[in-house]
Amino acid sequence: MSAQVTETAHGSLGLAVDDxxxxxxxxxxxxxxxxxxxRQNRMGRAPFVVPVSGHEGCQIGTAWPMRKGTDIxxxxxxxxxxxxxxxxxxxxxxxxxxxxATDPTSGGRQMPSHWxxxxxxIVSHSSPISTQVPHAAGIAYAMKYRNEDAVVASWFGExxxxxxxxxxxxxxxxxxxxxxxxxxxxxxxxxxxxQSKQMAVADVASRADGYGIPGFVVDGxxxxxxxxxxxxxxxxxxxxxxxxLIECKTYRFLPHTSDxxxxxxxxxxxxxxxxxxxxxERFATYLIDAGITDRAALQTxxxxxxxxxxxxxxxxxxxxxxxxxxxxxxxxxxxxx
Length: 337
Ligand SMILES: Cc1ncc(C[n+]2csc(CCOP(=O)(O)OP(=O)(O)O)c2C)c(N)n1
Ligand SMILES: [Mg+2]
What we know:
There is one protein chain. The protein contains ten helices and eight strands. By secondary structure, the chain is of the alpha/beta class. The protein has a single domain, classed as Thiamin diphosphate (ThDP)-binding fold, Pyr/PP domains (Rossmann fold, 3-Layer(aba) Sandwich), CATH 3.40.50. Helix 1 (about 15-40) packs across helix 2, helix 1 crosses helix 3 (about 80-85) and helix 2 (about 55-65) packs parallel to helix 7. The longest helix is centred in the first third of the chain and has 26 residues, at about 15-40. The protein is globular, with a radius of gyration of 20 Å. The structure holds thiamine diphosphate and magnesium ion (MG).
């Protein structure tokens, strides 16, 4: 059966105060980029954005144990917080939002929020849900075959776990005891479809039993609990003990995308209630109660991050657009010349 993880104390996690503050700053960066990107969309500058707000705890918590430059990140479209931990900058994010020529992912060719970076080890995913899961298993197979010390992690929503790709990916990873961690960000909805119409089980993590791998349910709004369960899964993967499935219970505060109207399928009362479990506010309270920071210092961080996001928007907006004559590059075969 899947295990419940509730531990939150940072002392036993080996996290220094600087780590905790950096985690908090990264969560805030994701939130402020998110809110700003939606404003840019409403201003007509950004064609399409995918909100992250509400998922910052599980994304930063599960991304943090990964080793930059060594491990491989296989995220999905909501994983702004994951790619920030992997090393993407706010300016790079907005270069993608605005489809600019210097967008590191694709020079403005890929769908927004389909980040990738060869340098950072972030693998681009396809838009069809869950296709990144067998990709992650395949990459992990290559890592094991080559005897490389790298862990692969793949993130996805609970709706993604209804797809055949998801089951095939977990099965092959389990059979070969591959160094991969599967992280489900369960926000209760797949666009408008609630979990109860998506599966007949209460916990995605219980599906791990069907593949013979460990499964864990964790409070996805508790960044330290997410960190702990991922750190252990990462260590098991490195030790040759195979894959793990982690289910982070969370909630998305904003519509599915900038094209969605969530008022048609969930009440405002429900959304307001869930905001009382905001992972950023919860972590801020934890840091204050632990004597690590105070409200004034956190306000300074908020002001700094807001300024950083605003200058990233200005720099990205002023960057050159792609040259239209290059629109078909990487689509059709070209002469070497
Ligand atoms: C195979 C496939 N079916 C349907 C879609 C349309 N679609 C895009 S996102 C999404 C919801 C996925 O929900 P979930 O996996 O729970 O992730 P969340 O968006 O809630 O974070 C759907 C159905 C798609 N992209 N691919
Ligand atoms: Mg979902």
